[in-house]
Design a protein that fits this description.
The chain is an alpha+beta fold. It has helices at 113-120, 134-146, 152-173, 182-198, 205-212, 216-227, 231-249, 254-260, 266-277, 281-286; strands at 5-10, 14-18, 33-41, 47-52, 56-63, 65-70, 73-78, 81-85, 90-95, 102-109, 128-130, 290-294. It is built from 10 helices and 12 strands. The strands form 2 sheets. It has an 8-stranded mixed beta sheet with strand order 11-8-5-10-3-2-1-12, with helices on one face. Residues 175-179 have low confidence and may be disordered.
Length: 305
Amino acid sequence: MKNQTVGYTETLNYKCLEDLQQTVSMGSMNPLNLSYCGKENCRPGWFFGPYARRNYLIHVVTSGKGIYRVSGQELPVSAGQAFMIYPGVETFYRADTITPWSYMWIGFNGFAAEETVERIGFDRNHLIIPIENTEKLSICMERIFDARQLTYVNELKRMAAFYDFLASMMEENRSEKEEKNYSDIIYVKMAVDTIMALYHTKIKISDIADKIGINRSYLTSIFKREMKMSPQAFLIHVRLERAAQLLRETDMLIGNVAFAVGYSDALSFSKAFKQKYQVSPSEYKASTPELTEVAERGGYSNPIL
């Protein structure tokens, strides 16, 4: 099997770093993970789509204008605005033929992704927001590009710049929500902490609810509201992210990895792992991410993802 690759492309009008999700060594601990980012001065009429993304994706327009088409709407977007693309939603966007836009983009995932974009100011009915300080965001983006080499130190640098990018957007829009029910937040935090501590055991969601002192249905309800996923889905997420880390960084056999993250048999583990990562645990273990740098737009393609 060929090694997985992380691509970096740089031309006069285009920069893109992609497939970074393969390099995250602490994924199970991260509420957010950077997948790709880029900047482009688009040529007149350049378009992308229709296409449905697998990640949350934000575009920030720094100059010019274009259109964003989603859910039957055609929305104009211009300099000083950002538009949001949600995973699984088919979208299309095109640069203006007279004054084409320049923009930067950042794609990410993680169990806190939807909450984060909401705190920035987006929701599924408000896909465009104003952004004035695009220069600060551009600096964050360049910090990510500068840390493109695949080392642990650079991973931390990329994540720091990525979080700074999102925090800057959030701070500008002042959209952080007041918590309506603090006790619910505490219960959810307790559930998250319990899952992070006991994911490797045969813990059940009903056991977690019992530890916290509430019933399972109530825990599921408030967990979905705050985390945008069920506690069971979060448990699976943590187990598989930790498994990916063990496969990448240790010599453990796949059956032992399965047991170490709370699965009683390797078959059910392998099925769940492939559903999440689109490759089997053995294929994932055999691959090693490598940085591929190209000097032409479209010159990079990942042979696996």
